[in-house]
Amino acid sequence: MSAPGSPELIRLFTTYTSDPDSIGRHLARSFAQNTRDTPLIVATGADFAIYPGGGRPPVVEGYRLSPRGFKELTAVSHLGPAVASLVYLREVLGDGGWRADAERLLAEVRSCRATGSAELWRDRIAVEAYRGREQQIADLVDYSCAVTERYLTAALADEQYLTAETLRTDYLEGGGDVELPVPVNHMMVATFFLAGLDISFRIGRWLRAQQIDWAEAMVVIAGKQGRATAGVTWTTSSVATLILGASEDKLPLERMYLAPHAPTFPTPVDGDLSEVIALEEPLRGLWCATRATVELGGLMFDGYPRYSPSGVLFPDVADPAVTEVGEMPVVRSAADLRALVTRLRVVMEDPRQLLSGAVVDVAVAALAEAGWDPTRVDVPGLTGVCYPTGR
After folding, report:
1. Are 198 and 127 a contacting pair, CB within 8 Å?
2. Roughly what angle, to the nearest 10 degrees, separates helices 70-77 and 79-87?
3. pLDDT digits (tens, 9 = 90+) for 89-116
4. pTM of the predicted model as reported, rounded to 2 decimal places
5. How far apart are CA 9 and CA 372, in angstroms?
6. Cα 309–310–315 angle (5° rounding)?
7. CA 355, CA 347: separation in Å to the nearest integer?
C-alpha cells in the first residue's frame, strides 16, 4: 500500500480545486451569478435551446432529425457509401454477405423510383428551402436510383464486376465503358449541400428572430455531434459554423465552447420543457467555470502575447498536382466540384470531421450572400445540371 502522502498539501490542493467550497468553485459560482441574465445558446446533436436568462423559460428548435426532408434526402446521399461498402465487403474482406445486402438495397432503390415524383417533394415533404426546386430534386433522386439499380443489377449478375475500378468509372466518377451523364459524386455534393441549405436557412432564421446580443451571448455545443471522434473543434463542427453564420460573424469565437462531455437534454415531446429547464443551471455553470479561468489569463499574464482564435487556412486543390490536404479545401464557386468532392473524401477520412459538415460552411456563406433567400443560392451539382430520368 502506498504512503498517504502529505495531508497538508492535499488540503492545499482541494482549497483551490476539487472541494465543493474551493476557491475555483467560488469563482465559477460568482461568475455565473453575474451572468444570470445573459442569454445562453445550447446546441445538442439534434436541437437548439435558447435560455433567455432572468428565469425566463427556454425556447427549443429541432434542426437535424425531427424536421421533414432530412432523412429522405440523406437516404439518397448515402447511396454512394452504401455501394462502396458492398465493394469493400466483397473485394477487400471477402465477405459473401455482400450479395444479400445488395439485393436488399436494390429492392429499396426500386421502391423509391416507383413512388418518386415532384409532387412528393412539393406537397408531402414540402421543405421551404427547396421551394421551386422540387422537379430538379425528384429528377436527381430518380436518376441516382436508376444508376444505382443498373450497377447493382450488373454486380449481382456477375460479381467480378463489383470492383473499386468499376465503382469509380461506372458509378461515382464516370469515364468508363458505361455512359454516366452525371457522376454520382456530383449528386452527393448536391444532396449534402441541400441538407445544409435547409438546416442553415431554418436555424439561421430562427436564431436571427431571437434578437440575440451576439457580442455578449454565451454558447455551448454540448455532447456528441455525429460520430464519436468528430466535431469537437470550431473548424470541424458544422453546428459551430451554422451559429457563426447566423450571427453574421458577430459572435466572438472565444464565447463559444464545444463541450463533448456536457450533459444534454432529449428532444422535447409534446411541448414538455422540464428536462431542458433542469439543465440550464449546470450548463450555465459549465460555461461560466470555463470562462472564469480564461479571464484569469489576462489578469495574471498581462504584457505577454494573448491567445486569439485564428481563422483556418483552407488549402487550394485547383492544381491537380495537389494530392493531399490536412484541412477542408477552399471552395471558389458552386462549379468548383473538384474541391467539393475532395471535401466528401476529407469528411470520410478525417475522424475529426462530421460527415454532415462537408459543405455546411459553403451553404451558410452562400445564404448570407443571397440575403438568406434560398431560392437565390446556386446548389452545386444541381443548379444548371440536367439529371436524365427514366420516368
Report:
1. yes
2. 40
3. 999 999 999 999 999 999 999 999 999 9
4. 0.88
5. 58
6. 145
7. 5
